[in-house]
Design brief:
heterodimer, A: alpha+beta, Alpha-Beta Plaits, 13% strand, B: 389 residues, alpha/beta, FAD/NAD(P)-binding domain, D-Amino Acid Oxidase, Chain A, domain 2, 2 domains, eight-stranded mixed beta sheet, 18 strands, 28% strand
Chain lengths: 78, 389
């Protein structure tokens, strides 16, 4: 379910099979990728559509509310 | 400003390596990049490809990458009813493993297959950098500047044209402002196990049915050395469960459960298969897209090796021909690649996409199951109205 507040994703690195599906489905316009070819885990996701969580074949993605100080984070505009 | 290369290809999968090989063979200076340390790994693909696809695209068939020879198909309805097409029985004078007979196709090891294609590219003069990740692309004075991190070193490489063959997770197209996003309803979430202890006999077995793989299908492919690959892909908008849960259900409760009861898992592999239409725009200034990056995947079968090899051949030959006669690398000039590709493969893929979409628009599950079973059976029948792509 889509959330109205930004979220911070976390990956169960043990469960992750590095299939890349989360990155492929991510609607972010700028790259939102970790160094291990998953969606980014070092910055909040403001879209918070949660489709990456839904599509993961092994449910390796979880999320928590983004820390308050990050709420104003805006992806760099091009 | 002088270019370092005519063409830089980002991603050394089947599409990228093939593009690089054909472009270099025709005399262009080509650099092929891949961010991985081992191509094809982690494996994200079942590895089925027709013999025709390899021959058509001048891939010499080698034991180096073949895991198993394939002689036909067995397509299942969700109930277990099936239609089998075994070319060893249909055309015994042509297909088989005896002297002078050939297989219909192969299951390849993507780690070895991708490395083999890269090797062939290198032997045709392509320079290759592994552990080289493209970070950004800019256009300056009509040339593309690709920022690349090679191990710990940052490089700025100038070239006439960049080929984005960076797969399903393609970023290069995004940088150029292309509409590359896949719909949630059109990206199959796939999981497969390479197993020991499950019999298979030279056929690609495809199990349709909402019950087993909503929005996609399950497969049982022979994988060489007596191993078998069992997997499935699902469309997550059609199920509350993930691919892993569906695969577990398929192994334990399907009509094949007796056959699977001694299955021992040797490898776990997953991937995404775009069951969408090809990108409407596969080019930009100084850029063309090839393979999964352009969503050049058969939307009925989910097969992407044949389509990537063919696109690579078209792209490589186009670039060679174009760059030797022109210094115009604008989007408009690059659009000729898409025209060539549309004529060979694209139109067919759009037709297949329409067929696939009409099936999955059906609300009634029984009717949809029947339609998918019928279409899949027809697709793989010897009298198929579909040209195989």
């Amino acid at each position: 379910m889509a959330k109205s507040e930004p979220v911070l994703f976390s990956i169960s690195w043990n469960a992750c099979i590095q299939c890349g599906v989360c990155v492929a489905i991510c609607p972010q316009e700028k790259s939102f990728i970790s160094h291990f070819d998953t969606i980014a885990v070092d910055r909040p996701c403001e879209i918070a559509c949660m489709i990456c969580e839904n599509i993961c074949p092994v449910s390796a993605i979880d999320h928590s509310p983004a820390p308050a100080f990050n709420y104003t984070f805006k992806p760099e505009q091009t | 400003m002088k270019a370092d290369y005519d063409v830089v290809v980002v991603g050394s999968g089947p599409g990228g390596a093939t593009t690089a090989k054909f472009a270099s063979e025709a005399g262009l200076r080509v650099l092929l990049l891949d961010k991985r340390q081992e191509l094809g790994a982690p494996v994200q693909c079942s590895g089925a490809v027709s013999r025709h696809a390899l021959l058509e695209n001048e891939v010499l068939i080698s034991d180096e990458f073949i895991q198993e020879a394939i002689y036909g198909f067995s397509i299942y309805h969700s109930s277990g009813e099936n239609i089998q097409t075994d070319y060893r029985l249909l055309k015994p004078e042509e297909y088989g493993n005896a002297e002078g007979r050939v297989p219909l196709g192969y299951v390849v090891d993507r780690r070895r297959f991708d490395r083999y294609l890269m090797t062939q590219a290198e032997r045709h003069g392509v320079e290759v950098l592994l552990k080289a990740e493209a970070l950004d692309m800019q256009i300056e004075s009509g040339l593309a500047i690709l920022k690349v991190r090679h191990f710990n070193e940052e490089l700025n490489i100038r070239c006439s044209v960049v080929v984005a063959a960076d797969g399903l997770q393609s970023q290069v197209g995004k940088w150029a402002g292309l509409q590359t996003h896949i719909k949630f309803t059109e990206l199959a979430s796939c999981l497969q196990f390479v197993t020991d202890g499950v019999e298979a006999d030279g056929l690609l077995e495809i199990i349709t049915g909402h019950k087993w793989a909503p929005g996609g299908y399950a497969w049982v492919f022979p994988k060489g050395h007596g191993y078998t690959e069992i997997g499935l892909g699902v469309i997550c908008s059609m199920t509350p469960h993930n691919a892993q849960q569906h695969l577990d259900q398929f192994l334990k409760n399907s009509f094949m459960k007796e056959r699977f009861k001694n299955a021992k898992i040797l490898e776990v592999q997953g991937g995404g298969v775009p069951l969408s239409h090809p990108l409407r725009t596969q080019y930009a200034n100084n850029l063309i897209l090839v393979g999964d990056a352009a969503r050049q995947v058969n939307p009925i079968t989910g097969g992407g090796i044949h389509t990537a090899l063919t696109a690579g051949r078209i792209a490589g030959k186009f670039l060679a021909q174009h760059l030797q006669n022109s210094s115009d690398f604008s989007a408009q000039s690059m659009s000729q690649y898409q025209d060539l590709w549309m004529a060979v493969n694209g139109k067919k893929m759009w037709e297949l996409y329409e067929i696939k979409s009409s099936i999955f628009r059906m609300d009634n599950i029984e009717e949809r199951d029947q339609a998918l079973y019928k279409t899949m059976s027809e697709y793989f029948s010897p009298n198929s109205p579909f040209k195989k792509i």
